[in-house]
Design a protein that fits this description.
CATH architecture of the largest domain: Orthogonal Bundle
Structural class: mainly alpha
CATH superfamily of the largest domain: Citrate Synthase, domain 1
Bound molecules: coenzyme A
Number of strands: 3
Radius of gyration: 22 Å
Order of helices and strands: HEEEHHHHHHHHHHHHHHHH
Strand order of the largest sheet: 1-2-3
CATH class of the largest domain: Mainly Alpha
């Protein structure tokens, strides 16, 4: 096959590996984790249950769920020396940079360091999932100038994160909305950051390196950074009547309208539909519909003008805002959730590995004659 024929820009449609973890059915608007529809999981399961499912390939029995909850809770604490390094970082640094740096530091206190057996990898996976919320909350509390109370080992991962951020337990409805958002973002096939994690693992590098690379990929506005970009974009809009002309002008300038479009979904992103319900419910609870109405109008206009549907990032931002999460922490929140998917993919890749090394289509010059420096014009 010629290079031209086999080249697919952005690797679109290229099957780069086999997985049993999750699948996006773009034409049907369906996402499954290990065979279970994301809609069922978001409505009925907890993030801990979903994490067990992603790691083990099946839903946990009662004792197994209790065991994974306990394992996570025992790992919420982060060593003071890691928190000290965070304290030294300037608060002008994007929180994703702080997270990338601090997750990297966790390898220094890994008691299983150098052991890549499945058992050690499983313990490492739990550690990473448990400690990431603590790292994110610590940085948020530091920036907000609040008192750091640390994690609470009697709370679920979702409840504990909101507790650490606000310094007091949050209402059950907030915890449930956050838990559902974590479930919805936990995995998504071979998305860019997961692919990065698998590529790093394929060299037989370690889990920390893989997830640090993934955090770097997630940061970009075409990936995890889009939820933040949505909220910044919405700041331009004060009422629903301005939406149509604003969207049209933006499209005319060939600018993206964040929160719309997807490489795989050609219909509604199922995660967006569930978060839309949460966003609507929360708007009702506080009696503030403006944001929600603006987004709904945007949705109509984007469908009419570009036939583009909302993706998960359109609604997650307004849900997080209601939970009191600062905008610059929306992408780190995504990382908290996606950590569960990344570590599952790292373990799957390691279990059946072949180094990921695609080919390139070279379009540069060839057979040039080297000209000595002093003879170059
Ligand atoms: N706003 C405006 N135009 C958009 C758009 C958006 N959100 N998403 C796609 N398009 C346009 C592209 O400009 C392109 O137009 P063209 O054919 O005139 O050049 C066309 O739709 C196809 O999009 P393309 O960028 O080729 O699709 P992709 O599969 O490479 O990219 C995304 C997918 C998600 C990166 C893209 O839709 C995007 O940038 N969305 C905004 C960022 C975002 O919300 N990301 C979160 C993803 S969960």
């Amino acid at each position: 096959m010629s290079e031209e024929v086999s080249y697919s820009p952005g690797l679109a449609g290229v099957v780069a590996g086999i997985t049993q973890i999750s699948k996006v059915y773009g034409d049907e608007g369906r996402l499954i984790y290990r065979g279970y529809d994301i809609r069922d999981l978001a409505r009925h399961a907890t993030y801990e249950e979903v994490l067990f499912l992603l790691l083990e390939g099946r839903l946990p029995k009662k004792q197994e769920l209790e065991a994974i909850q306990k394992d996570l809770q025992q790992e919420y604490e982060v060593e003071p020396r890691v928190l000290k390094v965070i304290d030294e970082l300037p608060t002008s640094l994007p929180p994703m940079d702080v997270l990338r740096t601090s997750v990297s530091l966790l390898s220094a206190s890994d008691p299983d360091y150098g052991d890549d057996s499945p058992e050690a990898e499983r313990r490492r996976a739990i550690r990473l999932v448990a400690k990431t919320p603590t790292l994110v909350a610590y940085e948020a509390v530091r920036r907000l100038g609040r008192t750091w109370k640390g994690p609470r080992s009697d709370l679920s991962l979702a409840a504990n994160f909101l507790y650490m951020l606000h310094g007091e337990p949050q209402p059950e409805s907030f915890v449930a909305a956050f838990d559902a958002a974590l479930i919805l973002h936990a995995d998504h096939g071979f998305n860019a950051s997961t692919f990065v994690a698998r590529a790093i693992t394929s060299t037989l590098s370690d889990m920390y390196s893989a997830v640090v690379g993934a955090i770097g990929a997630l940061k970009g506005p075409l990936h995890g950074g889009a939820n933040e970009a949505v909220v910044h974009m919405l700041q331009d809009l004060k009422n629903v009547d301005e939406v149509e002309s604003w969207v049209k002008a933006r499209l005319e300038r060939k600018e993206l309208v964040y929160g719309f479009g997807h490489r795989v979904y050609k219909v509604d992103d199922p995660r967006a539909l569930i978060l839309r319900e949460s966003a609507q419910r929360m708007a009702k609870e506080v009696g503030q519909f403006e944001r929600f109405e603006i987004i709904e109008r945007m949705r109509e206009v984007m469908l009419k003008e570009k036939n583009l549907h909302p993706n998960v990032d359109l609604y997650s931002g307004i849900v997080y805002e209601r939970l009191g999460i600062p905008t610059e922490f929306f992408t780190p929140i995504f990382a908290i959730s996606r950590m569960g998917g990344w570590v599952a993919h790292v373990m799957e890749q390691r279990a059946d590995n072949k180094i990921l090394r695609p080919s390139e289509w070279y379009k540069g010059p060839d057979h040039l004659t080297y000209v000595p420096l002093e003879e170059r014009g």
